[in-house]
From TrEMBL, chain A:
It comes from Coptotermes formosanus (Formosan subterranean termite). Pfam families: ETF (PF01012). Its main location: mitochondrion. Heterodimer of an alpha and a beta subunit. Heterodimer composed of ETFA and ETFB. Identified in a complex that contains ETFA, ETFB and ETFRF1. Interacts with ACADM. This is Electron transfer flavoprotein subunit beta.
UniProtKB/TrEMBL annotation, chain B:
The keyword Methyltransferase applies. It comes from the Eukaryota. Belongs to the methyltransferase superfamily. ETFBKMT family. GO terms for cellular component: mitochondrial matrix. This is ETFB lysine methyltransferase. It comes from Coptotermes formosanus. Keywords: Methyltransferase, Transferase. GO terms for biological process: methylation.
Length: 239, 304
């Protein structure tokens, strides 16, 4: 699929594009399911903020083993300007309502690469955070999170409740098979609006312009080094 | 490159979740059957005959499709029962829900709650003696087959999906047992014909669970044995405290865990006839020994 910039330069064309789960979020969901299989978690709730297509993504999560889904419906221009700050506020409110003990998010989305939601959510809730997790263990009522950092790994202890963001090596998500897809159809999926949650989704950042990357100039093949030197001199690159 | 959902999280709940109104009610609740019946009554006898031949033909086609897309499996908690199931050996195993020749083939999988009930009945055949059994949401018909095998007087498998009805008949034939099949939505209906009700994997959300409980409470007055099988869904956890007793718990085999991601066990719950419940209440006040009925139903395979 080729990504095209909108003629009015406000973003990229997303009409008719198939929505899918962000790979880091797949890892987050898989980890939650494994925590439930290890009896560390009792129930898993998946949340997706977006247009109607988000429900398909939630069904995928339900097929992976999530117990129920909450679709926070945000569409149109509101969705185009949705930022991590809005998502964090939504997640923080839902975490309080649902009395969640762990929030796991993907470390970043692969469309905007923002990498802010986990950190902002933790700040809003005043919960500890374990970002870029490559391993999670529950010991003595605390979470031991091994984090991927520059040049190595860091192990931290966080008290619960906590926010964790999933990095690439946390696990390998399993493919949802037909029996799981069928069972997902029976699982509850609730729809709410940001307004229901008391979250204002007014844009906080104005997009001035989205531009295509500059097109590369075609190259030329030169016969020998002498010609290369002549060309470089012509271009003023060497003297 | 796919456009992703930037805002996707998972929350794990260690405590009971707050009760939320769940908007999607199960398709089971909607009862379109009555309308169809009225229509049927008004058409002529001739067209009725043609219709029945058609449905017979479509039954054959359905049976052929079921045979084509399933394998006969005994790889589950009740290997004494053979079932037409979609397993990893079938092409459809890795198909998406839109690319299959059946509409929601819930009957093609042996659900964990159903496996627990069937295992429990087969291990405790005394429970089925003299019983007229109704298996609600029968799916593959496994629990109904287990009830017949355990000596029930009569067994009716109930599922609103007509394809499931065909699958149940095929599975009954495979196990050489006689089962009545009914596709009417019986939840909420009067069930005087039966004195034992089996419910495998029927508890999904607060709304439908509420309807189911109301119905069970109404029929409980008639002293029926009600067995409910479930792998531990939250909707059940929210209700078990007040009216259900866990009578058996089984560890799910590995393949069942893979078919039911997130679940590792399945339990059988009993809804006690009102007299036993009253007795238990009295015992509770008198002493700690309030397990009269529980002991009778004590499972052999608990924790196996």
């Amino acid at each position: 699929m080729i990504i095209r910039v909108k003629p009015d330069k406000t973003g990229v064309v997303t009409d008719g594009v198939k929505h899918s789960m962000n790979p880091f979020d797949e890892i987050a969901v898989e980890e939650a399911v494994r925590l439930k299989e290890k009896k560390i978690a009792q129930e898993i709730v998946a949340v997706s903020c977006g247009p109607a297509q988000s429900q398909e993504t939630l069904r995928t999560a339900l097929a992976m083993g999530v117990d129920r889904g909450i679709h926070v419906e945000i569409s149109g221009t509101e969705y185009d300007t949705l930022q991590p700050i809005h998502v964090s506020k939504i997640l923080a409110k839902l975490a309080e309502d649902e009395k969640a003990d762990i929030i796991i998010v993907g470390k970043q989305a692969i469309d905007d690469d923002a990498n802010q939601t986990a950190q902002m959510t933790a700040a809003l809730l005043d919960w500890p955070q374990g970002t870029f997790a490559s391993k999670i263990e529950k010991l003595n009522g605390e979470l031991h999170v091994i984090r991927e950092i520059d040049g190595g790994l860091e192990t931290i202890k966080v008290k619960l409740p906590a926010v964790v963001s999933a990095d690439l090596r946390l696990n390998e998500p399993r493919y949802a098979t037909l029996p799981n897809i069928m069972k997902a159809k029976k699982k509850p999926l609730k729809k709410v609006s940001p307004k229901d949650l008391g979250v204002d989704t007014t844009a906080r950042i104005e997009v001035l312009s989205v531009e295509d990357p500059p097109t590369r100039q075609a190259g030329v093949i030169l016969a020998d080094v002498d010609q290369l030197i002549i060309k470089l001199k012509e271009g003023g690159h060497v003297q | 490159m796919p456009v992703t959902d930037a805002s996707y999280i998972v929350m794990l709940l260690f405590h009971l979740a707050l009760y939320n109104k769940i908007v999607n009610a199960l398709s089971l609740i909607s009862s379109g059957k009555r309308g169809k019946c009225t229509q049927l009554e008004t058409i002529s006898a001739c067209s009725l005959r043609r219709l029945s031949i058609q449905s017979l033909k479509s039954g054959f086609t359905t049976a052929r499709l079921i045979k084509q897309h399933t394998v006969i499996s005994t790889d589950h908690m009740t290997p004494e029962i053979k079932l037409h199931l979609i397993t990893p050996l079938c092409e459809l195993w890795t198909a998406s829900a839109d690319n299959i020749p059946f509409h929601d083939p819930f009957w093609a999988f042996y659900w964990p709650g159903g496996q627990a009930i069937a295992r429990y009945i087969l291990d405790n055949p005394q429970l089925m003696l003299g019983q007229h059994v109704l298996d609600v949401g029968s799916g593959s018909g496994a629990c109904a087959i287990a009830a017949v095998k355990s000596g029930a007087l009569s067994v009716t498998a109930n599922d609103i999906d007509p394809v499931a009805a065909t699958a149940i008949k095929m599975n009954a034939a495979l196990n050489a047992v006689n089962i009545d099949v009914c596709t009417e939505n019986l939840v909420g209906k009067c069930c005087v014909k039966w004195n034992c009700i089996l419910l495998g994997d029927m508890v999904y959300d607060a709304e439908f669970t509420g309807q189911l409980l109301k119905w069970l409470n109404a029929i409980r007055c008639k002293g029926k044995l009600v067995l409910l099988g479930d792998p531990g869904r939250q909707a059940l956890k929210d209700i078990t405290e007040n009216c259900l007793t866990e009578v058996a718990r089984y560890r799910l085999p590995k393949n069942a865990c893979l078919e039911n991601r997130g679940f590792t066990d399945a339990s059988v719950w009993s809804k006690q006839p009102i007299m036993a419940a009253l007795m238990q209440l009295q015992f509770k006040f008198r002493s700690a020994a309030n397990h009269t009925r529980h002991l009778i139903l004590a499972p052999k395979h608990l924790g196996s």
